[in-house]
Automatic annotation (TrEMBL):
Keyword Cell inner membrane part of the UniProt annotation: yes
Name listed for the protein in its UniProt record: TRAP transporter large permease
First-listed, main subcellular location of the protein, grouped into a coarse class: membrane
Membrane-traversing stretches: 31-54, 66-85, 105-126, 146-170, 182-204, 250-270, 282-303, 315-337, 344-361, 367-392, 404-428
High-level lineage: Bacteria, Pseudomonadati, Pseudomonadota, Alphaproteobacteria, Rhodobacterales
Any matching Pfam family: DctM
Gene Ontology terms for molecular function: transmembrane transporter activity
One cellular component term from this protein's GO annotations in UniProt: plasma membrane
Amino acid sequence: MSPAMLGFIGIIALLALLALRIPVALATGAVAIVGFALSGGLSGAGLTQGVATIPAILRELLQLDAMAMVALFVALGNIAFYAGISTRIYDAAQVWLRRVPGGMAMAAVLGCGGFAALSGSSVACASTMGRICVPEMLRHGYDPKLATSSVAVGGTLGSLIPPSILFILYGLLTGLPVAKLFIAGLLPGLLSLAGMIAVILWWVHEEPGIAPKPAPAKASRTEATLALWPPVTLLAIIIGGLYFGLLSPLAAAGFCVGLAVMIGVLDHRVSMDVLWIVLRDTAVQSASLLLIVATATLFLGFVEQTGIGNAVAEWARISGAPALTVIAIAAVICLILGMFVEPLGILVLVLPIILPLMQAYGMDPIWFGVILVKLLEIALITPPVGLNVFVIGSVTRDVAVDQIFAGVARFLLVDVLVLAVLILFPVLSTLLPSSMVP
């Protein structure tokens, strides 16, 4: 058996395990360890010698500052949630847009964007905002499809709008600067947000009865706007600090964690008991993510050792396929995988092949990172897996999952259109990173 064939078998084995719902870390770790052992056997070095490289790979990974950054941004999301900071954008948007047709659904999308940006987790956003937004919209007579799908798609914005956990993981696995990845996702994230708002406006225009006008809000617009200062301040520190070169991602995360704790304490929402819960949740979530990073790094190392990625890149180069065609094929593969595999699994599966292709065609890795994360965002709402959809279904048991998917289908069309725009106009992803202050 050739090394390239072994790499191909490893990718197929990982795909099969992920399709069987084996946890990402367990599946990638098992395939990587067995792969390294068999690779050593094929080379004549022996099975034991094959796995001897694993400790060195892990030692190098654990020395990266980005590993600590994962824990800090996870902690920021937890503190912002318990301090009541994450939902303030939704509260303000609901006051300002309440009398606009479909305004509550638009407020849900905006609120999800703000929540997901602070937490970095689309699933956590869907879970929390689903409990807050969906029951209120249903109580005011909103169509269940609109109420649930607006929150499901809004939650995906956390994949692009900084600070995104997916961008951190992509940066860790590729060695790219996380700060540039964060800033690169800003304009595509806002474009995705605009597309979601446009879908709601069109939907309500076509079917006015699905979004009745609710009663006026109790709070004034001035009060709602003034209450926005905590999330706006935190996002300004992260985005502004990174763009103008004032803070590293690690420093921005640490500073915002301290500020969020202070805001929570002053608002009497964060106590020692709450801090203990935050620390416990952060430890569990960070350990899970870091385990995925560690096993994914091993898997990438194994596949790189087999040379299958370089073989595919050489085949694509010899065939004369245009770069745009390669990107389109990769996008279709990711969209198909999104129907059966969770986003993190897709990231691990495609990187070993995509990275050599990207290098062979001279593609901008920052731009491609945005395209890949956008694809993973779409995977969160793609049937039949649609992780965000099932999260919404679990927290709002009155609405069937098939109804949520029916509503999400309208947003999927616009998401694919936004993806096409990002592929055709790379400047949308590269403009801000290229103008960052070093």
